[in-house]
Structure formats: structure tokens, C-alpha cells
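Incident log entry.

Two folding requests arrived from the same account within the same minute. Monitoring flagged them as a possible duplicate submission, but the sequences differ. Recording both here for audit purposes.

Request one:
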Amino acid sequence: MAETDKGGWWSLGQHWADYWTDAVQRGLLFCDVLRERGDTYLDHQASGNPPVLVFDFDIIVDGRELDEPVNYALAAIRPPANCPPTDPELRPFVVIDPRAGHGPGIGGFKMDSEIGIALRQGHPCYFVMFFPVPVPGQTIECVWRAEKAFLRRVREAHPGNAGKPFVIGNCQGGWALTMVAASAPEDVGPILLAGSPLSYWAGVAGKNPMRYQGGMLGGTWLASLTGDLGHGQFDGAHLVSNFEQMDPANTYWKKGYHLYANIDKERNRFLEFERWWGGHYLLNKEEMEWISQNLFVGNRLSRGEVYLDDGAVRIDLRQIRSPIIVFASWGDNITPPQQALYWIADLYKDVEEIRGNEQTIVYCLHEQIGHLGIFVSAGVANKEHSELASALDLIDVLPPGLYEAVITDTYPEMPGLQYLQGRYVIRFEPREVDDILALGDGRDGERAFQVVKRVAEINQQLYDSFVSPWLQACTTPWTAHLMREMHPSRFERRWFSSRNPLLNGLSDWAGKAREARKPVDGDNPFWQWQQTVSDWTASMLDGWRDQRDAMKEMTFRAVYDAPLTAALVGLDPRRPYRVRSHGGGWEREEMLRLKRRELEEHYSEGGAVDGFLRLLIYVAIGNGVVDVRPFNAIRRVMQDTGLGEELTLEAFKQAVRRQTWLVRNDEKRALATIQDLLPGEAQRAMALELVMLLLSAAGPISVEKQQRLGRVALAMGVTAGEVPDAGEAVVLKKPRATRSRKKTAAK
């Protein structure tokens, strides 16, 4: 018994010695990585805080040289050695990164990224970057004009038939992109809004506490105060600190502990990310005031209340002519799905209005990825971003409406695999505006934000009149610089660097620890105890965050839901909450009436392509689901048969939209006039056969579609033969290799 006790105590003592040897070594290596982080910060700052792109680039338009100079630039990305040369005939890609405190580059932070996807597919790729310090006098309106000039330059560089540029707006870059797309639709192709907030009041009760921040601070005056203390410049480090406070467990514990616990393999990843996270940029006071007053608190963008160019231009998101793709995630606590999507309900009461406005909106929801993961996760880049980018031509010709992009894995027995290039298949399922609203818990909770908006306006006027002039007289460039350097994010990096004489020997000690490294085993009881303590610490910080957020929401509701507060600021406490603040007026109604009148003349006008498309749309429009496999099959058919060989992508897109409208407007008339488009019997028979083959590319033809095929055959007077049974699938033959493949819309 004594020997057993002795052996147990000896084993425990050995575990203790192993644990402390490992702990000391980890501690030295951990501190040395923090020192390297500080050195990286100082080097990055000394080099002018360049973008953290992993790709080389050439600046082709420097915004500082424009008539209205801004600290923005348009860069052309050079493809790396492992990517094919860019093809100028392919659709160009443009990535706009967020200017929300950090520097640019997160959209091309890794090879598996938004930019990397475009380069691997041979697309010319451009990047809208910005410099650390804004030009004096620069405003959001100046940036808006510069970005329009950038996209015009890209369009001019690619005048072929590849299509307008595909533009990606990450986070805050998304709202900037929508403003450009709505005011210059001729220069913008499909747009992807990745984690971009457009409806700032939206959210779910008990979650999304960041939307209450403006109300808790009394409005937007604090942004002005910070800008005045910065001598006319707003420090982006404050925005970064706001993000960090949303998850204190990660900020104060989990991020550091994860590095400590995985010190042997996390060093490079940590330093790469911190180079971007610690590279804070500045905004002009006027820029931050515009953002906070018009977006964060005012929520004016999705309501059509943003005016630019001295009121001559109203930004109406319904004026965007190209497809809008929205990518959001349930794991995003900065831009939840409601803030990314509720603007649709702000603009349209139902899908019929979307179709009437000829707008195509596609959204894709991820289950769990966080906000930054939307831009930098390799898994997201290789799945969602890759599939959406690959399906751009299909998205560009989707009939107007609202769709959800559903991406699924393929399997060996899946029909139509020959029409897919990767491991996923993407389809677009029709949705209603009510499906968007069902993502949240209603909109009554947004009524309080109307009171916040009014309180913010009052406080802003008081601040501008009685406080701002005094502060502007007291601050200097030196005091502003001192305040920025004393910000905790900068101070800790500067202190924990090689410039601190107290850390002179740290690098040598870390080198010795690395040479003598003895990692502890995972089954060591003291290591397991350490993991448990870490989990407890994170859990306590999460609990504190939840209590803080609950108290914030309760206080917000008690103040801004109170009838007294509404009455004090001149609002009727019994007012109904109205989402749609404008309807377009009689001008829009007259425009739509004339458009309908013009389109109705096309029932009997057109050629073989129009007839073929009308047949396909009539049969497929039943359930409205659009699959990428039939679309790819259409390309092969048009290449093999020469059908529509001279059509450009834009003409093909218009033909699809025109025939979709005609079928939806009057199915019977569309069917009765089909023979006017396909006058020959052999031509009609071939078109019907092609439609049957294309529909089977996505799997067995449904009973509903079989019935529609029968009605089509009867209307055309064609003996269709035996329509494929629901359990059958027809395989389309490959195109003849000898046929010339011109660059048409089918490609």
C-alpha cells in the first residue's frame, strides 16, 4: 500500500514538473510573440500601413490626384505564379474593403479569398484601397464620386461582351457600393454585399445589442466630440474598440489563451491577423458624422432619404439595375441577417413589386461563420464565394424576383453531374418578402429608434452650437496626436515591443526555450485543470457580457419606448410604425404602365431564341426554382446548335427578362402566340425536344412540368411523342468538337 501511494505521488510530482517546465517555456514564447506583434505594428506603421493583401498590385487610379482628392485608390491585382494569366475578355471583379477603423486588405488576406477565387478563374481583379490619413476636407460625397470614377475606369478597360464588373462590398464597403450602384447603374454589374449592414435598426430582442449603442450614448454627438478632440479627425481605433467590447471573453481571454495553448503552431497566424487588426486608420470628422447620422442612427439609406450633390441626387436602392447578392450569417454578431436583409422589406411590400421594378435579389445565409469569417475564412471562400462567383452568368439572367441561394454537396448518382465543375451544386429558390421578415421577431421593436433619431438630432444641434466651437479652439495637432498614441490598442503594442528596454533579453530567453521545448501531454492532469480554469474564465466573462447587454436593452426600452420620451421630442406616442416611407409616386407608376404597354407588343414579335426561351420559362416557371445544371446545359445547346450565336450577354439577359414578364403577365396569351415565334413545325419540334432535355438535366421532370409540356405541345400543334416520365432523366449530348465556339451569351 505504501509503495502504491509512493508511486502515485511520484507520478503526480512528475506531472507537476512536466507541466511547469512546459508552462515556463510557453510563457516565454507567448511573451516573445507579443513582442513580435509590437515590432510588426511599428514596422507596419513606419511603412505607411500598406494593405495586408497577399497579392502584388499596381495602382492605376490614385484618388489623391482627382479633381476632388480622396485618400482612396484603384489597384489592379497581379495574378501570382500559381494562377492562370488574366483574360481581359472575362468579367472583371472589383473588391471594396470596409473603412471601419482598420486598413484595407481583408478581402485578399489569404490566397483562398474573394480575390483569389477571381484570379483562379482567370478574371481581371481590381481592389479599392485607401490610405491611413484622409485628405483635408474629404467627405463621404467625395468618396462616392471617386468610387464612381474607379468603376467607370474598370468598365472602360473591359469594353467587350464579358459583362459589367462584378463588385463585392465587404461590411461597410457594402453600403458605399449600393450608393454607387444606385447612382451609376451603367457602370456596375452584379453586386455582392458580404456582411453589409443596410437596415441598422433591425435585429432580434435579446440579441444584437450593438444597435442600442447610439441610443445609450444619446445619439451622434459623441462621434463629433471625438472628431473635435482629434483636431478634425476621427480615430478608427475607437471603432475597433467597440467591436472588441462586443465579445469581452474573446478580447480579454480567449484570443490570448488560444495563442498560449497553441504557441507552437499559432504564431504565424496570430501575427498575420494582428498586423491588420492593429493597423488603425483615420477618418475626417465630417465623414464619421455623415456615417453616424445617416446610417448608424438615422437609418436613412434603405428608406431613400440619403441626398447627395446638394440634394440633386437621391439614393434609391430600387434604382440598382444589376442583380444584388447578399451574403449573411447567423453567427455574425456585428451584421446579423436582419440588418443585412430587412432593407428589402423597407423598399417592397411583396415580390410582385420587386418583379415590377425588374430587380433581382439573391441572398445566401451561412449557419455559423462569424463576421470576419465571411471575408477571410478559407472554407467560406471555397464554397459560398466560389459558387456564387461561378454562377454569376446565371444570376445575371435570373428573372426579376427574390431568391435564396442554396448550396449543397453533390453525390455520385446526382443527375447532371456533367454540367458541374466542382463538388457543389447551387440552386436559387424563390422567396417572398414575408420570408425575409420571418428571419426576425417583427418590426415593432424598431419604433423606439425613431425616438432615438429625434433625440440624436436635438443633442447634435446642442453640441454643434454650444460645445464644438470651444473644443475646436482648444485642440491642436499635437494634442490630437498624443491622444491617439495613448489609446490602449496602440500603447500596448508600442510598450510590448523591442523598443522597451525592459524586454531586451526576452528574445534570447525565448530562443533557449524553443531549443529546449518539451510540450506537455494532453492527458496531464494539471494541463486539463488549466483548460478547465480557462473555460470557467471565458464562461464568467460571457455571463458578464450577457448581463451587461440585457441591462442595456432593458434601459434602452425603458427610455425610448416610454410615451413621455416620444412626446417630449415631438412624436405621437400612439403613432403606427411605418416601414415604407415612400412609394415612388405617380412618375414610377406611369413608367411601369408604359413599360407594360411596350412589352405587350412582344407577344408575337421575336425569333427562334425568344420562342425557345418562352417555352423553357413557361414549363419551368411552375415552382420557380432555378438550378445551375440546366443553365449550363443551355450553354452547351446554344454552342452546339448555333442558337443565339450572335447574342451578347446583355441581349440574352434582356430576352430572358422579357419572356419571363410576358409569361407571368398572361400565360394563355404567351402560349397562344408561341407559333408566331417558331413558325416552322420542325423548328417547334426541335425547341420542344431541347426544353425536355434541359429540364431533365436537374433530375426527373416533375408531374407539374410534364403537364405544362403537354400543354405546350398542344398549343404548338406538335406531336411531342412520349414525354419523359417523372422517374426518367435524359442526358444531353456533348457538343461536336469541330464546331466553332464564338464568344456569345451562351458562353
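Request two (distinct sequence, not a duplicate):
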Amino acid sequence: MDQKIIALETERFANFPQQPHGGKLVDRVLKGKEREEEFFRAKQLPTIMVDLEAVITLEMIATGVLSPNEGFMNEEDYKSVLYQGRLKNGVVWPVPLSFAPIGNRNKEVVESLSIGDEVALADETKEPVAILKIEDLFAYNKEERAAQLFGTTDRNHPGVDSIFRRMGDVALGGPITLLRRVDWGPFEKIRLEPKDTWRIFYEEKKYRSVGGFITGANPLHRGHEYIHKNALETVDGLLVQPLVEMAKREYTRNEFRMLSYRSVLDTYYPKERVSLAPLRVTYIFAGPRETVLHALIMKNFGCTHALIGRDHAGVGDYYDKYASHSIFDDFSPDELGIEVQLYHEVFYCTRCSNHATEKTCSHDERFRLKISGTGIREMLRHGIMPPKEIVRPESSRIAMQGIQPKGLDDNQHSISPVGKTIKSMFPFYLEATRLGGTYRKEKLTPEELTIRDLEAATTDVRLNADRIYNDIYEEYTYIGDADRDMQRQWVTEAREALRQQQEMVVEDLKEKVKQAPETASDEFLYQDKEESRKELEVAEKILADIPPALRAEELKYRIWNPLPYHRYRGSDEPENK
């Protein structure tokens, strides 16, 4: 890009409320005649074969998603990022952007290269995808990389495993140019690159603020929706970007996740303020640092705000519950250049009758429905649509079609133990007899639960999640409504009948007490006076426990005014008759 174009780009972004990270939006995509010439030349260069994950990374670099990086890091930047979370020039960057080819044939090519050389990068079609200009070649320590980046060298961690499984021994640093974009299949028609979103947000729609939300392997659920709609109260627009590559096979397939998002956004969101675009990004950076990376990616798409949930980019039990929040303590708002909005775990409280977090709800787990991505996937796998308070039916119906594998095996097991699913979604079931009910004398353990318990818990929620607050509301309105026409007449009549019936019981027992002997001739056949009195006392307490039946004539005392209405309307004179 020549200096004149760079100046025009700088002037363009100066008028926007956001700036690309590092001050420039990288564009390394060749077009037209230049692309044709470089594509032909690339076929004459030494070639390194790359996999889909590397192709995705090349596209991210070339289209500006990873600005200000123009290629793969040299050793100086690599070590600065690994230990300081910043490029050597001080710009925040949380993860090393490295290219270390693996495979015997690639190893031979790497050994033949020197600084200043160029090498073609080709995909499975053996056609060039990009050209890399070599500015550095360096060996690195895989254990050191894993320990610094992920805080562990455990191969069970997917990021650690990826280092040892997918990366060679020598890293190549230098800028790249992209020769060929890969077609995104069903996602191509809704694909948006940074150059597109900056134009849409700030030139066409004239936004002054945009919230970004990157989400992983789950269909859109009510926790997502809670975050989105809270943000939409304060920002002009929302960019939702589900990740659509490199997900594990047992997750909901990408196409169905995107369709589940579209169905909910079309039905429940303000369409003119929300943009949905797939994000092809690798999972090699899984962990808290990936959360910072995602914030910077949102910034490069033009977002002024990054919306971060509790377990953003979480990996099993390797990190603290809120590690994706505390990681931002290492960076100042000014150097990040995007406002990070952190959200606590979202759940549905049946007592509050709304979605909430620990910061806004005081009720205990007897009343809570948790929103667990893993739990949602397992319910879908079992063929059970989660309660509407957890996932909108528009989302879960489509997502269920895309979940693999489905059902139970011969031992009635799935991928995740059913007890773990119940604990993650319906914690009340282990502690209480029912949703909002009394505590069990002995808590249930996840290990003893079966698919029948999942069905029972789900049925309980479907029947009673709405009912808890509704019942409470009806009790309050029955006592509170002075206009008795608002109330159900049959409740009043039932209460009157209850009182009349119990009054009959009391009157008969009073007669019984009068006639009861001081001492019964046969305690198995007759009652003495003391026992009859106890029976009467119980009946009178039951009568006192019956709630009153309220009628309009009995509530006239509630309606009184110190002055007639015409005086409140402003007249000091007596009302004309």
C-alpha cells in the first residue's frame, strides 16, 4: 500500500469513534493483475503445505482481523508477547502469532530457506494461498511456550496439545500476502470482513458506538440474550460473531448454530441494530489470553465495546471461574482502546421471574435455572429441548438437528454423565424436593442420577418455572386489589366455603367437649374431655389459618379521601349540585 493510500486510510479512520488496533487496518489481500502475477510467481517458489487452521490464520492476518500484525512474528516480538503480552513496540498483543511448519517435506523446505527468501504457502489443493517473505528463522521451546501461554504443560489442555501436535521446531517470521481467499460455503453470503463492518457501522449507519460479542460452540441461549440486550440499552449497534471453525465434533455443527442464531435474532432483536457475521478463527489460543485477543478482534471490526461473559474462552477446569475477567487487570483501558464490559454468570431466577446474575439476585439455588453451554448440548443430545427460560425454542429446535452424536449408547450413557448435566442446569434438583420446594433430608449426588431424573427435572421446570412468581403475584393481588372485580370470584367463594365448613366442625366439637366425660370408660372407643378439648383447639387453629374471603363491601375502609376530588382538581369552591 503506497503512502498516499495510507494517508487516506488514516484520515478516514480519524473521523470514526474507534480506531484499528495499533493505528492501522492491515490489508494484505492482493487483487486484480497484481494478484495474477504474484500467483504465477508463487508457483515457482519453494512451497510449504499448510492445513485449514493455518489458512484461516492467513486470512485473518491479510484482511486486518489481527491488525497491526502483517504476518508471523519474529523472535523478538514472539518473546515479548509470550512474556509481556505486548509487541516489542509496546502495543498490546496477548498471543504469539507463530508459523512453525510440521512434516518431513516441510522440514526439508524450511532447512533450505534463509532470511530474505520467499516461500509459497499452499493448501490441500496444492495451489498457493499466500506468499511469506522470510525475515526471521528461529527455534523455540514448546514447553516454555505452553507454560507461559496457558499456565500448564498438560497435554489434555487443547491449546497445549496443539503446540506439540501441530507445530514444528523452527518458526518462520515475516509479512504475508494473500493470493486466494477460501470460499466459506454456506457462510459466504453473510461473511463480513473488517473493511465491511467499518463501512456499515460508521459510513452507512452513522453509529457512535458498537458492542461486539464473539461466541463459541453453543447455540444462542438466554444468557447470551441477556448480555446482548443489556448492551443495546447503551450502544447504537451490536455485532454478533459466532465462531464457525475448528469446533470439536461433539459440538453443535457450525451451520446449525448459525441458523439457530438467525432464527432468534430475526424474531426477538431489533433487526436494524444487530449484525450477524460468522468468524473463522482458530482455537489454538484457548484460555484467558484468548479473551483479550477476541477483544482486540472486535476492535479491529470497528467495535467500541467488547462484551465478555463469565467463561469466555474457558477450557475445562484449568482456570479460575472468572479468569477471563481478571486477565484485563494486566492492561489499561487506554492501551486496549476498547471498552471492556464484563458480565457475571447469567441464570434464570424463578422467584424474581427474570434473568439475573449474582450481582442482582439474592435468591438461593432452589429457585435458579443455570445456563450451561455443555448442559444445553447434552440435553439436545438426549433429544430434550431445554426450558424456554434457558434457550428459546427457535434456537434449540434447529440446534438439536445439528448435534452429533445423538442419543444414548447401549449402556444408557452419553458423552457427559447425565448427573453432571442436571447439576449444571438444574442445581435445585439435588438439594430440593422440587423447584422452589423444601430441602431434601439428604442431598442427591450426580453419580446416582439417570436420564429419568433429567426428564423429571425438565418436566418440573416446564410446569412450574412460570408458576412460582405467578402464584406469588396472585396472592398479592388478591389481598391488594380494592377493586374486587379484578379478582377471581371462585377464589372468594372457595374461601367462604372453607370457613363455613370449618366453622361447622368447630361448633360440633364445642358440643362434643360439653358432653365428653372427664374420664373415658374405654380409651379405645371413647374420648375424655381433655382429648376433646385438644381436638377443638386444633380445629380452631385450622379455622384461623384459612385466608379471609374478601368482598367489595368489606373493603370500603380502604377508599377514603380527606377532600373531595374537585378540590384536588384545583377548585376551592364547593362542588355545584
